[in-house]
């Protein structure tokens, strides 16, 4: 398999959406209504660059590019374009171009349209980076960036509570899954030494044979299932419909919800084809398929109906990936491409209906075909593909699905039954959306329905036509898109020859049965909707309500923990801090057998004994002090004594610093004590002071033993020699200590200065506090009170 590097083209394609996102607000202010057309050039150019790699990809080659990021940890900002990544990237940029144009018309005149363009383009760039990333850490960064940008898009109308809730729910569920995925990636790196997807795929059975396969499997699935809305994690997806319709169309067709599917397809050659994989994925997928489709028929809002069909479609894809046979993976690839086309188009149709009729409620719509003929044509094209009618790409996918599952064992029969029922329900949902709003009599409540601007109907029409052309020119379609994608998912070259011409076989018979069942469900949709609503009302509690309960429980738990740990009492904080320090010092030394040896008494000069005596006198003065102010002043004795030691040991600069810090500390503490309303002395009984004294001794003993164990270790002169060798040649300073502080540790010193400044500002605030919130600062006589 040939691998070529395309650093310039690949990097530019990846960067274009982010560049456009940065410029979007400015371009909106300058060009107004034409900003959408200009911004759409960025994803269109990225699409063209990616399309130029197709000859290489179609011939089985791979395009790679990247840069070193953190070489010490084997982390590269690396990207790899094979058949799987190429098709995903083309869907992201191609549909993304139409979405940007659609947004320009749908949100025309919106005060925050520039901000919206910026968000949607950032989201596009994040998703593009996700599917192209090769390095695991790079993939994770883009994975979480899709969660963050989708949060911004779902909560775009942040003044509405439902939009805020939907955004938080999506972020909580997908972000939590992302953290699980990160743990899985770290586990893969640590136990298998694999740092990238290309290494994972080249490792063969390394992960399947690993003793850590189960935790890796669970963690990767948590990331994929939350992102791709598998039950019970599906609840965020319908609630994400609070986002503007362009977001829904893009999120459900080619981007975020497909991220989990991409991950499963990408890792299938390394993690798939095990008993665990072929059991868990089909089970979750089949349940999600049927329940999502049933909830879609129950819904009355066009967008909610389409949202649940997306949940159902994702379940179907997970089920097929779980089966893991070559035909099942081919079916998953064909359905994924078809779904991206018809679902993106139908969501844009929903927005067009809402824009022209000012409602999305199916029961309040009808007769729009005469007033919105282009939208109606686009809806029919997309619905025919979604229903699996020939000659559309949806037909190719459905035929391959049934062909992959046509085995006589109970396992495949059960999955086949789920596929037929789910597809029939989705068939009914597709035509509920594509027919009911357009046929019949126009309701009196709808006034002046109208077709939108070209930017609104262009997107769904193009996607509907592409669904037709892909099936009619199936050989080219397979050669450029489905074969390279399926080959990458299978891990070996595959052949796909299915066409739009029906063949009289079991798969075609099952397709006809699905259509007949779908028509029956369509005709009985009102009764099914009523019955389903009654059942759900009787059940009452569900995953969506469970999410709210979980969030409330989390808040109550957080309040409980905070009220215990952050009580507002300084003595409590100090006690906990010293306890943790003492435990952290003693535990490793005792458990690890690292207690220092008993030191020998050093030979000291008489003046050194005098300094040590001063230190002991200072400690005794603090302990026996009768009032707090005396204790504070006595604290300075130890500091000044240490400064004397620095002088005696030939470090006058350190001594001067110690004198200044100790003097300033005593003065500040004394000033603060005079401002706080405290009793002059500590009048606590002995039973309260003794534990504090014991804890103080434990902390001091722990630090002393720790320092003693350090000085008993052999001295390593590497750093000392380095600083001595380079202080003057590099930093041009003879005072090594000063050079270390100012140059080699410059950033650390700046941080210390920032801490001192923050402490000074806090002390200033404390000094200015007065009863009732008054301060010593007098009002400026030149200022006037409004």
Summarize the structure in words.
The protein is mostly helical. The chain has a domain at 570-715: Four Helix Bundle (Hemerythrin (Met), subunit A), CATH 1.20.120. Helices cover 72% and strands 2% of the residues. The chain has a three-stranded mixed sheet with strand order 1-2-3. A hairpin with a 4-residue loop joins strand 2 and strand 3 (75-81). Helix 1 (7-31) packs antiparallel against helix 3, helix 5 (83-106) packs antiparallel against helix 20 (454-472) and helix 19 packs across helix 22 (506-523). The termini are far apart.
Chart the SSEs and their pairings.
Blueprint: E1 3-5, H1 7-31, H2 35-39, H3 41-51, H4 54-58, E2 62-70, E3 75-81, H5 83-106, H6 113-132, H7 136-154, H8 161-192, H9 197-202, H10 213-227, H11 236-239, H12 245-253, H13 256-271, H14 277-298, H15 302-323, H16 326-357, H17 373-386, H18 393-405, H19 410-434, H20 454-472, H21 474-490, H22 506-523, H23 525-539, H24 543-565, H25 570-591, H26 606-624, H27 628-648, H28 652-675, H29 686-711, H30 718-731, H31 736-744, H32 746-768
Parallel strand pairs: 1-2
Antiparallel strand pairs: 2-3
Membrane topology: Multi-pass membrane protein
Main location: membrane
Keywords: Antiport, Cell membrane, Ion transport, Membrane, Transmembrane, Transmembrane helix, Transport
Q: Keyphrases for this structure?
A:
786 residues, mainly alpha, three-stranded mixed sheet, elongated, disordered C terminus, Putative monovalent cation/H+ antiporter subunit A, antiport, transmembrane helix, antiporter activity
Describe the structure concisely.
By secondary structure, the protein is mainly alpha-helical. Helices cover 72% and strands 2% of the residues. The chain has helices at residues 7-31, 35-39, 41-51, 54-58, 83-106, 113-132, 136-154, 161-192, 197-202, 213-227, 236-239, 245-253, 256-271, 277-298, 302-323, 326-357, 373-386, 393-405, 410-434, 454-472, 474-490, 506-523, 525-539, 543-565, 570-591, 606-624, 628-648, 652-675, 686-711, 718-731, 736-744, 746-768, and strands at residues 3-5, 62-70, 75-81.
């Amino acid at each position: 398999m040939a691998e070529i590097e395309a650093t310039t083209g690949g990097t530019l394609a990846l960067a274009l959406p982010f560049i456009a996102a940065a410029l979007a607000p400015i371009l909106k202010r300058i060009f107004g209504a034409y900003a959408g057309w200009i911004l759409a050039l960025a994803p269109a150019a990225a699409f063209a660059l990616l399309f130029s790699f197709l000859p290489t990809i179609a011939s089985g080659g791979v395009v790679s590019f990247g840069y070193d990021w953190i070489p010490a940890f084997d982390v590269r900002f690396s990207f790899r374009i094979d058949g799987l990544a190429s098709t995903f990237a083309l869907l992201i940029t191609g549909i993304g171009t139409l979405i940007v144009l659609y947004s320009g018309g749908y949100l025309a005149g919106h005060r925050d349209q520039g901000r919206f363009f910026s968000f949607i383009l950032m989201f596009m760039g994040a998703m593009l980076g996700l599917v192209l990333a090769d390095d695991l850490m790079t993939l994770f960064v883009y994975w979480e960036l899709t969660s963050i940008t989708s949060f911004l898009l779902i909560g775009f109308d942040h003044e509405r509570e439902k939009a805020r809730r939907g955004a938080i729910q999506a972020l909580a569920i997908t972000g939590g899954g992302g953290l699980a995925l990160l743990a899985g990636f770290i586990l893969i790196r640590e136990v298998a030494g694999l740092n990238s997807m290309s290494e994972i795929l080249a490792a063969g059975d390394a992960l399947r044979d690993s003793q850590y396969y189960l935790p890796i499997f669970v963690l990767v699935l948590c990331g994929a299932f939350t992102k791709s809305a598998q039950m019970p994690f599906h609840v965020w997806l319908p609630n994400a419909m609070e986002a503007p319709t362009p977001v829904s169309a893009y999120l459900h067709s080619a981007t975020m919800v497909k991220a989990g599917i991409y991950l499963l397809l990408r890792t299938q050659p390394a993690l798939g084809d095990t008993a665990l994989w072929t059991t868990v994925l089909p089970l979750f997928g089949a349940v999600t398929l049927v329940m999502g489709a049933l909830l879609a028929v129950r819904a009355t809002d066009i967008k909610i109906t389409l949202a649940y069909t997306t949940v159902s479609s994702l379940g179907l894809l997970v089920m097929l990936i779980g089966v893991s046979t070559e035909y099942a993976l081919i079916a998953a690839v064909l359905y994924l491409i078809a779904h991206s086309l018809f679902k993106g188009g139908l969501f844009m149709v929903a927005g067009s209906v809402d824009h022209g009729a000012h409602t999305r409620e199916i029961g309040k719509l009808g007769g729009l075909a005469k007033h919105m003929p282009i939208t109606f044509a686009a809806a029919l094209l997309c619905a025919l593909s979604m229903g699996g009618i020939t000659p559309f790409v949806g037909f190719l996918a459905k035929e391959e699905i049934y062909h992959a599952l046509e085995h006589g064992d109970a396992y495949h029969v059960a999955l086949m039954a789920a596929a037929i029922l789910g597809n029939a329900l989705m068939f009914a949902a597709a035509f509920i959306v594509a027919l009911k709003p357009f046929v019949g009599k126009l309701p009196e409540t709808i006034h002046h329905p109208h077709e939108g601007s070209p930017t609104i109907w262009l997107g769904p029409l193009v996607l509907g036509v592409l669904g037709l052309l892909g099936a009619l020119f199936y050989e080219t379609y397979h050669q450029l898109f489905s074969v390279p994608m399926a080959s990458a998912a299978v891990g070996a070259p595959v052949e796909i020859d299915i066409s739009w011409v029906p063949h009289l076989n079991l798969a075609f018979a099952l397709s006809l049965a699905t259509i007949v069942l779908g028509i029956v469900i369509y005709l009985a949709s009102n009764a099914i909707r009523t019955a389903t609503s009654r059942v759900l009302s009787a059940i009452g509690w569900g995953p969506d309500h469970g999410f709210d309960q979980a969030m409330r429980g989390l808040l109550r738990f957080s309040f409980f923990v905070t009220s215990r740990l952050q009580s507002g009492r300084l003595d409590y904080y100090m006690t906990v801090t010293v306890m943790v320090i003492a435990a952290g010092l003693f535990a490793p030394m005792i458990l690890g057998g690292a207690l220092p040896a008993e030191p020998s008494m050093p030979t000291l000069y008489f003046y050194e004994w005098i300094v040590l005596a001063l230190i002991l006198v200072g400690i005794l003065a603090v302990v026996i002090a009768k009032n707090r102010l005396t204790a504070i002043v006595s604290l300075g004795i130890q500091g000044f004594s240490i400064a004397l030691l620095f002088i005696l040991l030939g470090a006058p600069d350190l001594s001067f610093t110690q004198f200044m810090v100790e003097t300033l500390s005593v003065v500040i503490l004394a000033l603060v004590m005079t401002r706080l309303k405290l009793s002059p002395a500590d009048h606590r009984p002995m039973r309260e002071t003794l534990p504090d004294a014991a804890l103080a001794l434990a902390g001091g003993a722990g630090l002393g033993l720790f320092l003693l164990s350090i000085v008993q270790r052999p001295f390593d002169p590497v750093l000392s020699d380095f600083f001595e060798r380079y202080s003057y040649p590099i930093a041009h300073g003879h005072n090594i200590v000063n050079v270390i502080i100012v140059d080699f540790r410059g950033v650390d010193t700046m941080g210390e200065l920032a801490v001192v400044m923050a402490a000074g500002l806090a002390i200033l605030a404390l000094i200015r506090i007065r009863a009732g919130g008054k301060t010593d600062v007098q009002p400026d006589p030149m200022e006037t009170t409004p």
